[in-house]
Write a structure and sequence with these properties.
This protein has about 1050 residues and is of the alpha/beta class. Helix content is about 45%, strand content about 15%. Helix 8 (about 240-250) links the parallel strand 8 (about 225-230) and strand 9 (about 260-265). Helix 35 (about 970-980) packs across helix 38 (about 1010-1025). The longest helix is centred in the last third of the chain and has 44 residues, at about 820-865.
Length: about 1050
């Protein structure tokens, strides 16, 4: 921090608002990240996290919570039985429920966050950085070992990648839990290289929910065997279903009384799995296939139905399903290649449950049936011995001890930092030359809030996945061109936030004076999702994103950086879905469209690309009074604007069309239309060649075969893969005579506009944004094709009049450029942003001044608390400092900080009356009465009493009727009454006086339509965020500061006799 900036509000906020762990807290707060609670659709992952949370909740001085995407009433009721708190994250538009785990609710705090795996575990690092808590990462699987038994293509390389990611997460975590010795040996060696000492090995104990009565021996005719597995191609051999099926089939050849129950098939896939098992020679009469049991309570019933549970997996990190069966007293047989097998080797009777060779399974099952009564007794004894050996309570106690040691280290570091900041505060108090208020007034507001308020240059940053490449099609094309065009305007500074910028990206961006920023890379996050984590020191005035991804990250950056968010609409998913042939395309398109509309509603400005999209989205946004909608029609692309394309009279007529050609997009892109039209023309004049560009790498032959089936000869067909580099497009356009865009629908049609920019004649579908734009331009209508049957004739005419067509294309390009000028539209867009920015800057300036006042107030409180400790000189300087007035937005809101009472006196002030008509509550401010100024009254005023309306404030004490501020905390019903009385025009002012952050106020404003709901939600937020500190006294002060004295007296005070 610069010397000139002094002790600003941001630092004081961190010091006093709970960003640091409390020193020597008696109760340690531990929160688990989990996707489910009472259900177990995620298998062993959720099973372990649930049980560990329950076991920890039974210990003293530990407060357990779970952060779950969506908690059902059953989840909440079940968690309450164990005194486990349930938290649900903020629901952000465009994020999957599990991805929302990184956004905890307002006021959430914890000492430790515990996550597992990659999907939810990766959010631990976000919590660690944002909340200042410690992060524990739980390892439940070895993806690399698992992949060796999976049959899907690329499984091994993907397994390696996942394991490397998990190791990276472990290295970053403050502590690692490995579940079982098998995983511990694997990961400890990897972490030993980075000196990761905080590795805790936990071997799961018996599950009490299944350890009820002793399972009774029944000499039934059939022997019921249970095995778990999905039965998919990926997991069939991994879970050893083939081993179980073959063993049971073999036994039934000699004694047909063994029944195999397979539980875990996806819903609707049971028949498919039964057929696959039947191929392994097991009879359907000896086979039962069931779907997965989502509810854990059903497992107890399932275990009671069977005589033996198998776990014949190729590998198991631990094997919790078998441990659950053992907890229920059911005999088990398990693979030797599992963590549970290693644990059982240390327990009496444990060896008998382990199968070492695949050929031994049938014999082991046979012996289990032969000695079933004995095996049931052994299972009961094994369960008891296992419980004694691997006790949940003992292990959890040891784990908490380790956490407390880690917590203590952290607390010491924080306390040292806190003391350093307090020392700096006291130095400033002792040196009036270093007035925080004076220095803050000279500081650029960007140092306080990440925002340059009155800067001549406005900073605009684009979220984009690529720059010089075009693998994302029209999305990256538009974002790139708009960034370039904006960079050409004055007083605008353009940047791009890109996941991974290549050297070419940086060189190209530099040509346009565009700054390149790369986000922080968090292990476990996709590159595009890292865009929500800007680099240190990054700031911007506007963030511009598009689509659902990466557009959804705009809302995160808006809250994080206090900037404005512009959302760009480039497609209508609902309309596109109608032309797709994949199952569920239409409902999925509807879902995506609804998500994009929600993003638009949350954004500060919406930019639609073309009139077609504008007409679609404007009505949807009109309902929520979204006025900041800007329609931009893309102009000509200068990079293709070269010399006039020359006429040539070739033997063949080269036609270009873009498209991937996959099943999903084949008809959407109109490739069948282009192929059929060219095939028709070649019947009479075989000289039309069709170039299809955009096939996925390696899929060109497949697409050529599909097109050939539409009647086009391979002699007249060329299929190429997608051009990743934009520089190759100019060469491509120079090779062709005509470009087609025969799509079923196009939101705009930038590929055709790029071709027109290169002066190539085009023919486009009428159902596109570009067609609507061309209707307003001379020669434009001639490029539009209205009916599918007309394409062949239109192509034929384009060839016949090629020379004229080239001239018309050149004139059309010029007229289009004149009509839809990038510079004019971008200038209008920036003007709109500046108007929005100006209003935002005013709010931010008031907020900044408010924070500086709060900071000064807190500095004074430090002096009060330490008044008995500091020297008389320091105390005198603090009193001198306190006499200075703080800068505040308006004269009537100006407050004087009074340092005259000790902390003890401050605590007693609720019971001490004073005569004053000014702001008197928690700030310690009071106006001294006339007789006190004259010396006729005591010098020290009393606090927490306000004068009844109508009194003068200078009359004698017997003429003044007074009010005493109520003690304690307001209840919700009392806040409801207050919300009714607050005028709608001032609720935001009250919110700021209650020290509610500006982004929170904005969110409350947007999420609630009724003013009453805004006011009540604001008061609710204050109460929840401050807990026991949300007192009547604080509320009274806020209302007085907001010039709402009558409300303060009515709701926060009691009249004194």
């Amino acid at each position: 921090m610069d010397q000139g900036q002094s002790y600003n509000s941001e630092i004081i906020c961190k010091l006093f608002t709970g960003h640091y762990l409390k020193k020597q807290a008696a109760i340690m707060k531990i929160t688990f990240l989990t996707e489910e609670w009472t259900q177990s659709t995620k298998g062993s992952c959720s099973t372990f996290m649930r049980q560990m949370a329950i076991e920890l909740s039974r210990l003293e001085n530990v407060e357990i919570g779970i952060l779950i995407p969506s908690a059902s009433p059953e989840d909440k009721e079940d968690a309450q039985k164990y005194n486990i708190k349930v938290f649900e994250p903020e629901k952000l538009t465009g994020y999957e429920p599990v991805n929302c785990l990184q956004f905890p609710p307002q006021g959430f705090s914890t000492d430790f966050i515990i996550g597992q795996g990659i999907k939810s575990g990766c959010y631990g690092q976000v919590f660690k950085n944002n909340l200042g808590c410690k992060w524990v990462h739980v390892v439940l699987r070895n993806a690399e070992e698992t992949a060796m038994f999976q049959k899907t293509p690329g499984a091994i390389s993907e397994g390696q990648k996942q394991r490397e990611t998990e190791v990276e997460l472990c290295k970053k975590a403050d502590m690692v839990i490995t579940v079982g010795s098998k995983l511990n040996e694997t990961f400890r060696s990897a972490l030993h290289q980075c000196k990761k000492d905080h590795v805790f090995n936990l071997i799961p104990g018996i599950f009490d929910e299944f350890s009820g009565e002793q399972k009774q021996f029944q000499n039934s005719k059939n022997f019921e065997i249970l095995v778990f597995g999905k039965g998919s191609t990926e997991d069939f051999e991994l879970k050893g279903l083939h081993v179980a099926a073959k063993a049971v089939a073999h036994l039934n050849k000699y004694e047909p009384s063994y029944i195999l129950k397979v539980v875990g098939a996806p819903e609707g896939e049971q028949e498919k799995l039964a057929g696959r098992l039947e191929d392994l020679e097991i009879s359907r009469s000896q086979l039962i296939v069931r779907s997965f049991y989502k509810e854990r309570r059903k497992l107890a019933q399932l275990f009671s139905e069977v005589d033996l549970v198998l776990m014949p997996s190729g590998t198991e990190a631990f094997g919790l399903t078998a441990l659950e069966a053992l907890s229920a007293g059911v005999p088990i047989l398990i693979t030797h290649n599992s963590g549970l097998a290693e644990a059982l080797e240390e327990v009496l009777f444990g060896h008998g449950c382990i199968v070492h060779k695949e050929a031994d399974w049938a014999e082991k099952i046979k012996q289990a049936r032969k000695n079933l009564k004995t095996r049931l007794e052994e299972a009961s004894m094994l369960r008891n011995k296992y419980k004694e050996k691997y006790c949940w309570r003992d292990q959890c106690t040891a784990f908490v001890t380790k956490l407390r040691a880690l917590h203590s280290e952290c607390a010491k570091e924080v306390e040292q930092e806190s003391q350093g900041k307090r020392h700096s505060a006291r130095q400033q108090l002792a040196d009036p030359a270093k007035d925080p208020n004076q220095s803050a007034s000279k500081t650029d507001f960007s140092s306080v809030s990440g925002k340059r308020l009155k800067a001549a240059v406005m900073k605009i940053t684009f979220l984009t996945e690529e720059w010089t490449q075009s693998t994302k099609g029209s999305c990256s094309t538009f974002m790139r061109q708009m960034a370039i065009e904006l960079s050409r305007l004055e007083n605008v500074e353009i940047g791009i936030l890109i996941p991974s910028a290549s050297p070419n990206d940086k060189v190209d961006a530099e040509k346009y004076n565009i700054k390149v920023f790369e986000p922080e890379n968090y292990p476990g996050f996709d590159l595009v999702d890292c865009l929500q984590f800007p680099p240190q020191g990054f700031s911007t005035d506007f963030i511009i994103g598009h689509g659902i991804k990466p557009g959804c990250h705009g809302q995160v950056l808006k809250n994080k950086l206090s900037c404005k968010w512009v959302h760009v609409v480039l497609r209508n998913a609902e309309e596109i879905a109608v032309f797709k042939e994949t199952p569920d395309a239409i409902p999925e398109g509807q879902k995506q469209h609804e998500t994009e509309v929600k993003l638009c509603k949350n954004a500060d400005v919406v930019l639609t690309v073309g009139s077609k999209l504008n007409e679609t989205f404007k009505p949807a946004l009109h309902q929520c009074k979204k006025d900041h909608i800007f329609n931009l029609i893309p102009g000509i692309f200068d990079e293709f604007f070269g010399e006039q394309k020359q006429y040539r009279n070739p033997k063949n007529f080269e036609i270009l069309v873009f498209g991937k050609g996959n099943t999903e997009d084949f008809k959407l892109e109109g490739l069948h239309v282009a192929a059929e039209a060219v095939a028709h023309l070649n019947k009479y004049e075989p000289s039309y060649n069709l170039k299809v560009v955009g096939a996925p790498e390696g899929e060109q032959k497949k697409l050529a075969k599909k097109l050939k089936g539409l009647g086009i000869s391979l002699n007249h067909l060329i299929v190429r893969s997608f051009y990743k580099e934009r520089g190759q497009l100019a060469q491509l356009f120079s090779e062709v005579d005509l470009v087609l865009m025969p799509s079923g629908t196009e939101a705009f049609g930038l590929t055709a506009l790029e071709a027109l920019s290169a002066c190539v004649p085009i023919l486009i579908t009428h159902n596109s944004g570009l067609a609507e734009a061309l209707k307003e331009v001379p020669f434009g209508r001639g490029c539009i094709v209205h009916q599918e049957a007309d394409w062949a004739e239109k192509i034929k005419q384009a060839r016949k009049n090629l020379k004229t067509g080239l001239e018309e294309a050149s004139m059309l390009r010029d007229k289009y450029k004149e009509k839809y000028c990038w510079r004019d539209q971008c200038a209008a867009f920036v003007k709109k942003l500046r108007a929005l920015h100006s209003g935002h800057a005013e709010e931010m300036q008031q907020e900044s001044q408010y924070k500086r006042h709060s900071a000064q107030k807190r500095v004074a409180e430090i002096a009060i608390q330490d008044s008995k400790k500091i020297s008389p000189v320091g105390k005198k300087m603090a009193e001198k400092m306190s006499d200075q007035k703080a800068v505040y937005p308006s004269e009537e809101d100006r407050i004087v900080i009074e340092i005259g009472s000790s902390e003890d006196e401050d605590e007693r002030s609720d019971d001490e009356p004073c005569a004053s008509g000014q702001n008197v509550a928690a700030s310690g401010y009071t106006e001294v009465k006339q007789e006190e100024k004259d010396g006729s009254a005591a010098k020290k005023p009393k606090l927490d009493t306000v004068e009844e309306p109508g009194t003068s404030g200078v009359s004698s004490s017997h003429e003044t009727r007074k009010f005493k501020v109520r003690k304690g905390n307001p209840e919700l019903d009392e806040l409801e009454q207050l919300a009714n009385d607050i005028d709608p025009s001032v609720w935001k002012k009250v919110a700021r006086k209650l020290k509610i952050d500006n982004p929170v106020i904005t969110a409350i404003d947007k999420e609630n339509e009724e003013f009453y709901e805004k006011k009540y939600t604001m008061l609710q937020e204050w109460k929840q965020a401050n807990g026991s500190a949300a007192t009547w006294r604080e509320l009274n002060q806020a209302l007085m500061d907001a010039n709402l004295r009558e409300l303060a007296e009515k709701h926060c005070c009691a009249k004194m006799n």
